[in-house]
């Protein structure tokens, strides 16, 4: 049993204060021409704080030309309220030789301010016997803009997994504001079935055995789970000790659904290939047996066996229905596509669906939007409708209502079939569409496989939205 971490008070996120290890080395080991090409702003001062040289990135940051900065004191471009703190850090640097990190602002030439963080180093030049102060600068404002506009969610945590920073993209991906999650454990919203795997992967990673990436399910603010792919990097403090982790996570739910669909279609194709080879061979002897049973039904000498004969004919009808489904799964079945409206097909299939609903004590609600015509095979779409509707009806108790809706969305047409059942369990959801998988005692496990086949043949996709209040199946037809 893994206990979620208790909410802790956290300090200001340090992601923007984290530099790679090479930025803490003595800067004179790097040729000045290399520093000049660096995208990181760098300045060099003498012991009095006079700027001796700087690179182009520093000039761009402050808005001054290099000639204007040379021989200018760093005091001249520092707001007065930061001077006392920066001088204190300078004395600390001289006394200990330890690189100092300073959050401050620079005064730009145009009078505006830019928030930065400095990392200052002291280096002794034997030839001139001078101390030189190398200042590496991180533009915090720019870095925040970069992370806040990324599609991936950037997360920083402590070594215990407590969230100290989240990029604003978490709102778009997971529906939470950063403030709702900062201070909580990163494991709190992981799917229970993935929690143990994620927890031990994090422990291994934070110990220095970093995994390349990991995929798991994370809870959205609406209660549903999304698949995310997370890549992590370790953070180190100035003593080169692990101080936490920074992770980049992206939503891969659609990719996982596509992989699942492709896996189902692969299995369906295999079943179809078997069906082509065996379907007709089985059907021929069944047809012969069926004919003889019909003749025996008419024989008066066998009238006292009529009930048994009817039962055998019914069972043969069931077997023949299964064989038809097998043959439908064959890839080479011809499509009879015709430009028509999906709403008209739904209206023609609704009387049968409504009758089934009434027999089960259920209701049917139909709302058809204004949608364009599509190239459709009517018989296959009716089969899709019947299978999806029957699944929804069988998922509900008497009194429930099945809803069938159509509407345009972007450049596609959506068919939505919703029930008011108890939702689909996660272990069942992962197997939906797999041939012969069924949760019903008398089911064949071919209904959803047929639906996936119909969708694939019409260049459509099938998605599920499920929860305790019911399930909605979305069939998305491209126009």
Number of domains: 4
Uncertain runs with pLDDT below 50, 5 residues or more?
1-31, 124-134, 136-143
The spatial strand order of the largest sheet comes to 2-1-5-4-3
What is the molecular shape?
elongated
Straight-line N-to-C gap: 50 Å
Rg measurement, Å: 34 Å
| CATH T-level fold name of the largest domain | Heat Shock Protein 90
Quaternary state of the chains: single chain
Strand elements, count = 17
What is the helical fraction, as a range of percent?
25-40%
What's the CATH class label of the largest domain? Answer: Alpha Beta
Tally the helices: what do you get?
14
Give the integer mean of the pLDDT values: 76
How would you describe the overall organization of this protein?
- With 479 residues, the chain is of the alpha+beta class.
- Helix content is 39%, strand content 25%.
- It is built from 14 helices and 17 strands.
- It has helices at 32-37, 56-62, 66-69, 80-96, 140-148, 169-174, 178-181, 192-206, 253-298, 306-328, 342-359, 378-394, 426-429, 447-457, and strands at 42-45, 51-54, 100-107, 113-125, 130-139, 153-157, 163-166, 214-219, 225-236, 242-251, 338-340, 363-368, 374-376, 401-409, 412-418, 460-467, 470-478.
- The strands form 4 sheets. It has a 5-stranded antiparallel β-sheet. Strands 7-6-10-9-8 form a 5-stranded antiparallel β-sheet, with helices on both faces.
- A hairpin with a 2-residue loop joins strand 14 and strand 15 (412-418).
- Helix 9 crosses helix 14 (447-457), helix 11 (342-359) runs parallel beside helix 12 and helix 12 packs antiparallel against helix 14 (447-457).
- It is elongated.
């Amino acid at each position: 049993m893994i206990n979620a971490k208790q909410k802790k008070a956290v300090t200001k996120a340090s992601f923007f204060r984290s530099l790679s290890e090479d930025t803490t080395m003595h800067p004179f080991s790097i040729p000045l021409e290399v520093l000049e090409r660096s995208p990181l702003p760098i300045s060099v001062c003498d012991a009095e704080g006079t700027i001796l040289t700087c690179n182009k990135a520093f000039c761009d940051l402050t808005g001054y030309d290099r000639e204007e900065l040379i021989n200018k004191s760093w005091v001249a471009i520092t707001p007065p309220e930061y001077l006392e703190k920066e001088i204190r850090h300078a004395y600390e640097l001289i006394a200990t030789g330890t690189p100092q990190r300073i959050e401050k602002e620079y005064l730009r030439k145009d009078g505006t301010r830019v928030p930065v963080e400095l990392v200052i180093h002291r280096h002794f030049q034997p030839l001139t016997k001078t101390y030189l102060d190398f200042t590496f600068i991180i533009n915090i404002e720019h870095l925040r803009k970069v992370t806040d506009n990324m599609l991936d969610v950037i997360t920083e945590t402590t070594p215990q997994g407590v969230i100290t920073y989240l990029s604003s993209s978490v709102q778009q991906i997971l529906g939470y504001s950063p403030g709702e999650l900062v201070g909580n454990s990163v494991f709190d919203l992981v799917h229970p079935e993935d929690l143990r795997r994620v927890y031990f992967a994090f422990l291994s990673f934070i110990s220095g055995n970093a995994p390349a990436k990991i995929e798991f399910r994370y809870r959205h603010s609406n209660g549903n789970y999304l698949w995310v792919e997370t890549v992590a990097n370790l953070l180190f403090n100035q003593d080169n000790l692990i101080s936490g982790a920074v992770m980049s996570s992206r939503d891969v739910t659609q990719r996982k659904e596509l992989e699942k669909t492709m896996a189902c279609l692969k299995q369906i194709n295999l079943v179809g290939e078997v069906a082509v080879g065996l379907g007709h061979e089985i059907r021929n002897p069944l047809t012969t047996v069926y004919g003889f049973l019909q003749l025996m039904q008419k024989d008066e000498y066998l009238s006292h066996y009529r009930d048994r004969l009817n039962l055998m004919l019914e069972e043969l009808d069931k077997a023949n229905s299964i064989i038809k489904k097998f043959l439908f799964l064959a890839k080479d079945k011809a499509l009879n596509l015709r430009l028509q409206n999906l709403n008209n097909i739904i209206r023609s299939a609704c009387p049968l669906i409504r009758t089934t609903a009434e027999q089960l004590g259920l209701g049917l609600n139909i709302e058809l939007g204004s949608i364009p015509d599509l190239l459709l095979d009517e018989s296959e779409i009716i089969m899709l409708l019947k299978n999806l509707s029957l699944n929804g009806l069988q998922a509900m108790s008497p009194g429930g209502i099945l809803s069938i809706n159509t509407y345009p969305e972007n450049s596609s047409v959506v068919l939505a079939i919703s029930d008011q059942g108890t939702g689909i369990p996660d272990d069942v959801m992962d197997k939906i569409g797999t041939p012969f998988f069924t949760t019903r005692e008398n089911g064949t496990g071919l209904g959803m496989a047929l639906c996936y086949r119909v969708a694939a043949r019409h260049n459509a996709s099938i998605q599920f939205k499920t929860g305790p209040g019911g399930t909605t199946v979305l069939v998305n037809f491209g126009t």
